[in-house]
Design goal:
four-stranded antiparallel β-sheet, 36% strand, 297 residues, mainly beta
Length: 297
């Protein structure tokens, strides 16, 4: 335990020392309505989405950290960020500030899109918890990440979005955080997830699309659409998943231009990670196995 605390403390000091001063204004995301209102229409010829055809389920995994395919190891899944699964292998890419504006700590970096996207949360506290350790001793990652930084290499000034400006139905008291984010063709897509299961009354667990040129929100999906660790953008479609106590477990296909759900596929347990293998097959990790789908365009 002492060794872990020392390593984590040294890492925290390195993060602060490596902080950069980004002269960036936080853009507030304006969502005039919620509950799945589409604010943009799909361009001509972009309304058709892909279909999935299940090919197989794997055998139950021997442990939670292994999968049948080496390329789909938990924590090293295709398309997963490279910052490491925990603080022991937390590596910050060059050009990414470890601390933003002196109070936001880096939580993760997503590299699936046109350029990297980083998310930040509040700086972990050094105040001891009841059992003696502090948040900083446990992990240096930002807590409750809801700040998204666009790291476009072609622009000197990077944009930062504060997702807390999203209007959510007041009865929704769930704890929200950004789970995944990607920029594709000038649009930022990100998923907002909660810390508890997406029960039937939850207004959380949705995907938001923002035009990064105008900062206008294009659409926000229906609630209880996504709580998977990531989602994939394939052609005109977004592939994501939701599940847990209170609602059935499904994989959903959304139109990436409108956020409208077009197809759904039942799975026995909630989806965690999505990846497309070298064989062009879609693999989805579940609680104790993975399922494979053929992508039909």
């Amino acid at each position: 335990m002492k060794k872990s605390v020392i390593l984590t403390t040294l890492l925290c000091l390195a993060l602060v020392a490596g902080a950069q001063d980004f002269q960036t204004e936080i853009k507030l995301i304006n969502v005039p309505d919620f509950n799945g209102k589409t604010l943009a229409k799909a361009p001509a010829g972009k309304s058709q989405t892909l279909q999935l055809a299940r090919t197989k389920f794997s055998k139950p995994m021997e442990s939670y950290t292994t999968l049948a395919l080496p390329s789909l190891r938990l924590g090293n899944i295709i398309g997963h960020p490279t910052l490491g699964w925990d603080d022991t292998d937390f590596k910050i890419p060059e050009g990414v500030p470890a601390v933003y504006d002196g109070k936001w700590a880096l939580n993760d970096v997503f590299t699936d899109g046109d350029f990297p996207v980083a998310i930040y949360g509040r700086t972990p506290s050094d105040k001891p918890l009841p059992w003696g350790e502090s948040e900083q001793d446990i992990s240096c990652r930002g807590r409750d990440p809801h700040l998204i930084m666009l790291l476009d290499p072609s622009k000197e000034v990077k944009k930062v979005y504060n997702t807390r400006n999203i209007t959510i139905t007041p009865k929704d008291s769930l704890f929200q955080r950004v789970e995944w984010a990607v920029v594709k063709d000038g649009v930022l897509y990100f998923s907002e997830c909660a810390s508890t299961a997406p029960n039937k009354n939850s207004q959380g667990y949705y995907i938001v699309a923002v035009d990064i040129n105008t900062d206008e929100t294009l659409w926000i999906s229906k609630p209880r659409t996504v709580n998977s660790s990531n989602f994939l953008i394939v052609d005109n479609s977004i592939i994501c998943g939701v599940g847990g106590s209170g609602i059935p477990d499904y994989i959903y296909v959304l139109n990436r231009y409108t956020g409208v759900k077009t197809r759904e596929y039942w799975i026995p347990t909630a989806a965690s990670w999505f990846a497309i293998g070298e064989d062009k097959t879609l693999y989805v990790t579940l609680y104790d196995k993975h399922v494979a789908f053929k992508i039909i365009k």
